Amino acid sequence: MRKFRLYLLITVIISISLVCIPYKQAIVFQPNNRNADIAYIPTNKETKFQIKYTHSIHLSDVVESYKITTGKKIQQYELMYEDFSIGMPSNAEKGETFEQINGSYYIKNMKRIFPFFHLRIGQVRANHTIIFQNEEYPLSLSITPGTSVKVEIRKLNFLDLWKGVNILESI
User: Fold this and answer.
1) Where do the structural domains in the chain lie, given as residue ranges?
2) pLDDT per residue as tens digits for the range 58-85
3) Phi/psi at 73 (nearest 5 deg)?
């Protein structure tokens, strides 16, 4: 009977440990209200994603392109927009390139690295959409419009995955 209890105790400890140990890398959208559930995209081996939105003033598309660095940070490497106007850059920074292609403006070769960034999911026009593996996922299907989120790369445990919303499964 003692051996059975010992085995049971060891099994319970191992099970709890496996549930709580982070193992799955994801792009995580953590609402600033910590009581709200996270939304996430499991990345597996994919390292690039984009965020597309409609600019609130010119009402044209803006696409920000990112990649996950080896240090689990987020690097913005490209920006595409359609109008020079309020809130949009008029040229590239040092080391970056500026191009006009088919009526759109591109800033390429960006090396802007962030441990995280904040994003407010648009309520009216922005229609924030994440593009992952060439598929578009409107964030408003997984995150309440108007919510401010912290976007970061982190490993999630089984409980995080179970409680959170997998954006890839929200359509």
Assistant:
1) 24-169
2) 678 899 999 999 999 999 999 999 877 7
3) -105, 175
